[in-house]
């Protein structure tokens, strides 16, 4: 399903509506959260609804998509800290129930397997919020990777490191070289996917996502195989759709 909405606030409210419906049916549901700018309007809408008493995450677990490897525990760009700042601290989720792949584990290969297992043990993700990179990546699954991968250690592309250098004093040498990320196979197991894309920079990725064939060159296209996937775009991101 593709929804072309007037602006990011309308998108945030529309996704918050879907999340609210999930939690009305199951107060213990699990929410998949993403970092980046795309989910921020959704997070604002969720915080407002929790403040108004319309929604509660008291019994929820949040599962993050990805994390840098080797980043300081208290670095503001550590994704766990970003999620705390942008959403977890603004709603009533128990901080102990906010989970992410562990980028500083002594044994990363064991840690990524444990993360997939934790998601399974908690009953799976009910609704996953997603952004999309201009190259079609979701989470840190860059073009050319496996379409069925599990949570894994990945190498950040030069492009992604350059894009993110602005968060590290503009100094490329401070940007981590590796990440841990849910794989596309892991993400596809969420029962519902809600992807946000806004702005002209996402128009090519949105065209491939909606109208292209499924290809590892555009990782998000695997979502075409998902039975309950929703894509929310503004006019600029939809501009290249036929
Ligand atoms: C976020 C993530 C990334 C972003 C994507 C879009 O956890 O893994 O895939 O969703 O890079 O970023 P924004 O929303 O900042 O354009």
Written account of the structure:
- With 242 residues, this protein is of the alpha/beta class.
- It has a single domain (2-233), classed as Rossmann fold, CATH 3.40.50.
- The chain has helices at 8-25, 40-51, 79-86, 108-121, 158-164, 184-188, 203-211; strands at residues 2-4, 30-33, 61-64, 66-68, 98-99, 127-130, 152-155, 178-181, 193-197, 229-233.
- Strands 1-10-9-6-2-3-5 form a seven-stranded parallel β-sheet, with helices on both faces.
- Strand 9, helix 7 and strand 10 (229-233) form a beta-alpha-beta unit.
- Helix 1 crosses helix 2 (40-51).
- The radius of gyration is 17 Å and the shape is globular.
- The model has no long low-confidence stretch (mean pLDDT 97).
- Residues 34-38, 65-66, 131-133, 137-140 line the site of fructose -6-phosphate.
- Residues 10-225 form the Glucosamine/galactosamine-6-phosphate isomerase domain.
- It is an enzyme of class 3 (hydrolase).
* DSSP, total strands: 10
Q: Tell me the strand percentage band.
A: 15-25%
Assign a percent range to the helix content. Answer: 25-40%
Mean pLDDT: 97
Radius of gyration: 17 Å
Quickly name the level 1 CATH class. Alpha Beta
Series of H and E elements: EHEHEEHEHEEHEHEHE
- Main sheet makeup: 7 strands, parallel
Attached small molecules: fructose -6-phosphate
Distance between the termini: 15 Å
Number of H- or I-type helical stretches: 7
CATH topology: Rossmann fold
SS-based structural class?
alpha/beta
Low-confidence stretches at least 5 residues in length (pLDDT < 50)? Answer: none
CATH architecture classification name: 3-Layer(aba) Sandwich
Q: Which of globular, elongated, flat, extended, rod-shaped describes the shape?
A: globular
